[in-house]
Amino acid sequence: MLIAGNWKMFKGPEEAADFCRGLREADIGTVDVVVCPPYVSLAAAVQTLSMTEIGVFGQSCHWEETGAFTGEVSAPMLRELGVYGTLVGHSERRQLFGETDETVVLRTNAALARGLQVIACVGETASEREAGQTEAVLRRQVGAIAAGVAETDDLILAYEPVWAIGTGKTATPEMAQEAHAICKSVLDVPVLYGGSVKPDNAAELSSQPDVDGALVGGASLDVESFATICREASHS
Ligand code: PGA
Predict the structure, then answer these.
(1) Bridge partners of residue 199, in order along the sequence
(2) Which of 31, 91, 170, 202 has its CA 20 to 30 A from that of 233?
(3) Is 90 a catalytic residue?
């Protein structure tokens, strides 16, 4: 069971170090835990969590190692900082920054080749779900990863229905289970659930047989709320 906190564009280096000091002292149960700070706060998080089991992940990485790619960072740069893995293909990257199934595969392969773990995100929008296309969308998104990425133990998927992200609407445990089973039928790797995971729904969601953890956005920004989610998930 893995609980990952996606900070998105929150917490500069000072706040990141404060948070990580708090997390070091908190009771996070028995789950594996990682945090995904913005790039500028990665070094502070790595340093503050250095003597712990808590991993630090980036939020994306480019597929080239160096080059004229303004605004991007590469897998070797993340490694040099002591970063352990990276998110790839978050729906905000797909919707706002032109990420495609193809670039998700490129980024995933570059990260894996450099020894980073990858949490690759997939999920349908509200209109796709309403149109009955959830399964087709997941098969397309996960299928692209399955076709383009060699078998590895370092790859994890996150099923994040776009309509549940930051909205307070959560997939029911049954909906999550169904979607996770579809993902795993295409690519047999651990699958995290993401989308409005909170202290009060973490246990039920993570008790589903094919839910292997959670990718938490808003509720990961507060130490007590994030630690409570980790403890809740530890029981299931
Ligand atoms: P949320 O975000 O928990 O705030 O819905 C999840 C995510 O985007 O990873």
Answers:
(1) none
(2) 91
(3) yes
The reply to whether 65 belongs to the active site is no
How many Å apart are CA 11 and CA 5, to the nearest integer? 12
CA distances for 25 relative to 19, 104, 122, 149, 224, angstroms: 10, 35, 33, 38, 11
Q: Where are the domains of the chain?
A: 2-235
Q: What is the mean pLDDT of residues 82-88?
A: 98
Tens-digit pLDDT profile for residues 3-30 = 999 999 999 999 999 999 999 999 999 9
And the tokens for 56? 């630090």
Specify whether domain 2-235 bears CATH 3.20.20.70: yes
CA separation, residue 100 to residues 9, 79, 88, 106 (Å): 21, 24, 11, 10
82 vs 144: CA distance, rounded Å: 29
Residue 129, phi-psi category: left (phi > 0), alpha (psi -120 to 50), beta (remainder): alpha
